[in-house]
Structure formats: structure tokens, C-alpha cells
């Protein structure tokens, strides 16, 4: 078995135990069982993505992107495109989408979220199996808005946790961050 795939399966098991969420982790483990095709966007039923809960050096703020295609505030992230090392994918996407220097991944899986992506152009509706990691910024928090975003903004984690206008999974991650790191 590919070492990155074996590591992902281990981390999914650990997540299931730590978060008491075996049903969600089992969906992801089942997809991982398909091997490389599960990490390619050409698997139209659904595929792995990875994203970053990108926090400031002090942990009080998170950097969000106003996603150009989906037209809402989300965490940076994207397709695995064949890379089975999803923490690497999360870091790469955070760097590409924000331009923040000195980012680093902390720990193993922080959150799992399976969500439907609406049909767009020639791309049919499909599932994203998003594996999320904590990515921490260094002291330099300057960002650059990429062509994938309308805007980027640092937001207080406490304000996201209770903001009903935010995506439900962002609120969940904010609450989890406050509970475990606060």
C-alpha cells in the first residue's frame, strides 16, 4: 500500500476515535480504499480535496477566502489532483490561494466534511470529501488575493463560531478550535 494512503487511513482512524465520529470517518476510509482514483477530480461521483483552517500565529484569527466560483466565505483548499498526501495538498492550496509566507501544518486531521458541489458548466454535481488540517501562519500575515478569490480577510475565530451567515462547517471548525485550543 502507498505510504501516504496508509498514513491517511491511520489518521482517519485516529480522527474517528478522537472526535467520536466513526460514521463520517468511515465514508472517507471507504473512498480511500479505492486508491489513486479517489484522489483525482475525474472520479465524478466524488473525490478527495483538502483544505486549511489557516490560523494566525496567536491562534485568535483565521484567514478566509471569498470563493470566486461559490461566492461565499470559506477556508482555502482545493483538489488533491492525484496527491495522496492531503496535509501537503492543504498546505499547497493555502500557499497558492493566500500568498502568506511561512505557513506550516500542525498536527493530523482537524476536520472532515463531505459536501455536494453544484453542477457548473460541463462539470456535473459531485461530492467533495474534504480533509482539513490546521495550518498556522508565522509573524508575517500579509496576503495576496489570488484569481480564485474575490477577497481574503482575517476574521476573529470567536466571531465565526456564532455567525449564522457563515458556512456551517466554518462555524463547526471555529467552535472546535475554541474548545480544543482556546
Question: What tags apply to this protein structure?
Answer:
4-stranded mixed β-sheet; 5 helices; globular; alpha+beta; about 180 residues; about 30% strand; single chain; 3-stranded antiparallel β-sheet; Nucleoside Triphosphate Pyrophosphohydrolase
Structure description:
With 182 residues, the chain is of the alpha+beta class. It has one domain (3-119, 127-181): Alpha-Beta Complex (Nucleoside Triphosphate Pyrophosphohydrolase), CATH 3.90.79. Helix content is 33%, strand content 30%. It has 5 helices and 7 strands. Helix 1 (3-19) runs antiparallel to helix 2. The chain is globular, with a radius of gyration of 16 Å. The model has no long low-confidence stretch (mean pLDDT 94).
Mean pLDDT: 94
CATH third-tier fold name: Nucleoside Triphosphate Pyrophosphohydrolase
Please tell me what the overall shape is.
globular
Give the N-terminus to C-terminus distance in angstroms. Answer: 38 Å
The CATH architecture assignment turns out to be Alpha-Beta Complex
CATH class: Alpha Beta
For the biggest sheet, the summary is: 4 strands, mixed
Order of helices and strands: HHEEEEHEEEHH
Q: What is Rg?
A: 16 Å
- What is the percentage of strand-forming residues? 25-35%
Q: What count of helical segments does DSSP give?
A: 5
Helix/strand-derived category reads: alpha+beta
Kindly report the name of the CATH homologous superfamily.
Answer: Nucleoside Triphosphate Pyrophosphohydrolase
Amino acid at each position: 500500500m502507498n505510504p501516504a494512503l496508509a498514513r491517511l487511513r491511520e489518521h482517519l482512524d485516529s480522527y474517528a476515535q478522537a472526535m467520536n465520529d466513526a460514521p463520517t470517518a468511515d465514508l472517507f476510509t471507504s473512498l480511500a480504499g479505492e486508491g489513486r482514483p479517489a484522489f483525482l477530480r475525474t472520479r465524478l461521483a466524488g473525490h478527495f480535496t483538502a483544505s486549511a483552517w489557516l490560523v494566525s500565529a496567536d491562534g485568535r484569527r483565521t484567514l478566509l477566502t471569498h470563493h470566486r466560483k461559490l461566492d461565499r466565505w470559506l477556508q482555502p483548499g482545493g483538489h488533491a489532483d492525484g496527491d495522496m498526501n492531503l496535509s501537503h495538498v492543504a498546505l499547497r492550496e493555502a500557499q497558492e490561494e493566500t500568498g502568506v509566507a511561512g505557513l506550516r501544518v500542525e498536527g493530523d486531521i482537524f476536520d472532515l466534511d463531505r459536501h455536494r458541489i453544484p453542477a457548473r458548466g460541463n462539470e456535473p454535481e459531485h461530492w467533495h470529501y474534504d480533509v482539513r488540517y490546521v495550518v498556522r501562519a508565522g509573524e508575517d500575515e500579509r496576503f495576496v488575493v489570488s484569481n480564485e478569490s474575490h477577497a481574503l480577510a482575517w476574521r476573529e475565530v470567536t466571531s465565526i463560531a456564532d455567525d449564522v451567515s457563515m458556512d456551517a462547517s466554518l462555524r463547526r471548525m471555529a467552535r472546535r478550535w475554541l474548545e480544543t485550543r482556546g
